[in-house]
Structure prediction request, 59 residues.
Amino acid sequence: MHFPLPWQLILILLVILVIFGASKLPEVGKGLGEGIRNFKKALSGEEEEKGKEVKKEGE
Prediction:
């Protein structure tokens, strides 16, 4: 698999800008970042560990 060329990245960013608009772009980026963060947490099992700690403290 090869990396996209710089002009391809610019084209993709322009298409995203046209679709979402400049005002919505920060919200889209924030949502994407949160989604990736939650996905990584789910893969590492961090949520399960937090739940176990809360149960232990509540007992």
Remarks:
- The chain has a mean pLDDT of 82.
- Helices lie at 6-20, 25-44, 46-58.
- The two ends are 52 Å apart (CA to CA).
- The first helix runs from residue 6 to 20.
